Structure formats: structure tokens, C-alpha cells
């Protein structure tokens, strides 16, 4: 079956998130997953903007899993760090905090990034909607885009010197998504490289 692309407003999705149940303590956990270079960060930012723009809205914290990785080889094994520093405290009704990894210095920075208790938390990154998180997710989003475009985006952003690590990364994420069934179990699949004309700050293109 050929997927049908539908342009939908972030504002409606923001209202959908807030109307759903909180499953991580008092917080609605939104996971924005998908392969590298698909457009996850853009989607997460625009959804956070839409939540903040609602009447009485509060901009949710957005945790990027790349900030929690201990380098390239920590692609999937970082999860305990996210659980201990962010998810477990919020589950108990307490604020979380984490140390951000510096990809330049190749170490975690000493300062902490606070994650306050709020109505919504957005976690963005490869494996954010993994099976371990699903019972507590209020919304699972999978963002996709063609592999050549994703590779070109990553190289344009970080330089060609990352290519050896990036190719290993792509192989690892493909294996993970196949084993985890992430896209099939997502509540929403988004086209990260849509051809339909639209205002990308206010709308996204749903393909499932």
C-alpha cells in the first residue's frame, strides 16, 4: 500500500498530547524517534513551540539523546543514563537533571541541564521510542527520510570526517529499528523530507 501524505498542524498535535493521559508520573512523555538526519530535532522543536503557543501553554523541555551518549559507541546503551537522571525522577514527581556530552571535548560537561516536572517532556533521538519506553509514552513519533538525503544532511552538518563512524551508526540504527519494530508501533509516522508545499514551522506531513 502506498502511504498517503497528509499535512497536519502542530497545534492540533499539541492539543492531542495534552488531552492524552500522563503515564510518566504527572508528565506526558513524547518520544520523537527515527534514523539519523531524518528531521527529528526539527519536529521536536516545532512541537515544543506549538505546545508553548497554546493558551496558558508551557514550553516543554526537549532532551536530545545525542547529549547523553558517551561517544559513537554508546548508540543504544545510553538508556540507563536517561532513566536514572531524567525519567526516574519525573516518574516520582521530582525534577531531573543530566550532564551534556561534548562531542568536541569527548567528555561529559560538569554543568547540569535541569529537567523540570511539567505536563510534557519531549525526548528526541535514535531509540527514544524503544520498547522499554512504550508503556510510559503518551505519543510515539517516527520521522523518516530517504537514506541518501539523511547521509547528505549529516555530512553537511558535521563534516565528511564523520563518515566512517556515521556508516557504522546507520547500520546500528537499522538493526535496532528492525528488531524493535519502532516504526510499526509508532502512533505517528512523519515524512522528514516532504515534497508537499507547506509552512514547515506550523505543519508537518503525516504518512501514517
Write structural notes for this entry.
The chain is an alpha/beta fold and 208 residues long. Helices cover 34% and strands 24% of the residues. The protein is built from six helices and nine strands, in the order E-H-E-H-E-H-E-E-E-E-H-H-H-E-E. The strands form three sheets. Strands 3-6-2-7-8 form a five-stranded parallel beta sheet. Strand 4 and strand 5 (107-115) form a beta hairpin. Helix 1 crosses helix 2 (40-53). The longest helix has 18 residues, at 163-180. It is globular, with a radius of gyration of 17 Å. The relative contact order is 0.24.
SSE arrangement:
Blueprint: E1 6-9, H1 10-19, E2 28-33, H2 40-53, E3 62-64, H3 79-91, E4 96-102, E5 107-115, E6 120-124, E7 137-144, H4 147-158, H5 163-180, H6 182-185, E8 188-191, E9 203-206
Characteristics:
208 residues, alpha/beta, 5-stranded parallel β-sheet, two-stranded antiparallel ribbon, 6 helices, 9 strands, 34% helix
Amino acid at each position: 500500500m502506498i502511504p498517503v501524505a497528509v499535512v497536519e498542524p502542530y497545534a492540533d498535535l499539541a492539543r492531542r498530547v495534552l488531552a492524552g493521559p500522563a503515564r510518566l508520573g504527572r508528565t506526558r512523555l513524547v518520544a520523537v524517534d527515527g534514523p539519523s538526519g531524518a528531521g527529528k530535532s526539527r519536529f521536536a522543536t516545532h512541537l515544543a513551540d506549538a505546545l508553548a503557543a497554546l493558551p496558558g501553554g508551557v514550553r516543554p523541555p526537549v532532551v536530545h539523546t545525542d547529549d547523553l551518549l558517551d561517544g559513537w559507541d554508546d548508540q543504544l546503551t545510553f538508556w540507563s543514563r536517561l532513566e536514572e537522571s531524567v525519567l526516574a525522577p519525573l516518574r516520582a514527581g521530582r525534577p531531573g537533571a543530566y550532564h551534556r556530552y561534548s562531542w568536541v571535548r569527548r567528555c561529559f560537561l560538569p554543568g547540569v541541564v535541569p529537567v523540570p516536572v511539567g505536563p510534557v517532556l519531549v525526548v528526541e533521538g535514535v531509540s527514544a521510542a524503544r520498547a522499554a519506553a512504550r508503556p510510559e509514552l503518551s505519543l510515539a513519533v517516527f520521522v523518516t527520510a530517504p537514506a541518501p538525503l539523511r547521509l547528505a544532511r549529516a555530512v553537511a552538518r558535521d563534516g565528511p570526517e564523520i563518515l566512517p563512524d556515521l556508516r557504522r551508526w546507520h547500520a546500528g540504527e537499522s538493526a535496532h529499528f528492525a528488531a524493535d519494530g519502532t516504526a510499526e508501533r509508532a502512533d505517528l509516522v512523519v515524512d522528514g523530507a516532504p515534497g508537499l508545499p507547506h509552512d514547515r514551522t506550523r505543519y508537518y506531513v503525516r504518512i501514517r
